[in-house]
Structures are given as structure tokens and as C-alpha cells.
Design goal:
By secondary structure, the chain is mainly β. The chain starts with a strand and ends with a strand. The strands form 3 sheets. It has a 4-stranded antiparallel β-sheet, with no helix packed on it. Strands 4-5-6-7 form a 4-stranded antiparallel β-sheet, with no helix packed on it. Strands 9-10 form a two-stranded antiparallel sheet. The chain has a single domain, classed as Rieske [2Fe-2S] iron-sulphur domain (Rieske Iron-sulfur Protein, 3-layer Sandwich). The chain is built from no helices and 10 strands. It is globular, with a radius of gyration of 13 Å.
Length: 94
């Protein structure tokens, strides 16, 4: 399960895998598309526009976009956020 939400001035993808919540910037660092394909097994999320892949736990870019295979992955990571369930309310530390 996952969804994107606006939190203050950010758009954050919030994913629940098992009993754990993850939060990551929902806007791809490559072309500013909204992320949206979650792989629960690898805890990764893919950009719908150019297939860049990011680690939900660290924000690191795992795979560069197919249109820029030489993109510097180490410079294109995304910010992650602590997310928790507080009696049915999802809270994100921004």
C-alpha cells in the first residue's frame, strides 16, 4: 500500500510494507515526475516517467533513468522521512 501526500511544502510518497511505514520524496530527482511503482519485495520505488529506481529505506538511486544511463546515481538520491502510525493518524517528520 502506498500513496503520495502533500506535507507542508513537500510531496512525500508514504508506503506501508508489512507493519513498517516508509517516507520518501515523491518527486523524481531526474525529471520531476511523481514516483509511483512500488516493489514491496525490494523496498524500492520506480519513477513512472523514465524508470529511475530509488531505495525506500535510504533514498539512494539504485537505477538511473533509461534516458540517462550515465546519470550520477550518488548525486540524485531522494530525502527519506520517518513515518509512524499514531492511533490511526499517519505522522511524517519533515
Amino acid at each position: 500500500m502506498y500513496a503520495s501526500a502533500k506535507v507542508e511544502d513537500k510531496v512525500i510518497l508514504i508506503a506501508k510494507v508489512g507493519d513498517k511505514f516508509y517516507g520518501i520524496d515523491a518527486v523524481c530527482s531526474h525529471a520531476k515526475c511523481i514516483l509511483g511503482i512500488l516493489d514491496q519485495d525490494s523496498l524500492a520505488v520506480k519513477c513512472k516517467c523514465h524508470d529511475a529506481v530509488f531505495d525506500l529505506r535510504t533514498g539512494n538511486m539504485l537505477e538511473p533513468p533509461y534516458v540517462a544511463k550515465d546519470a550520477p546515481k550518488e548525486k540524485l538520491g531522494l530525502k527519506t522521512y520517518q513515518v509512524r502510525d499514531n492511533n490511526g493518524w499517519i505522522e511524517v517528520d519533515v
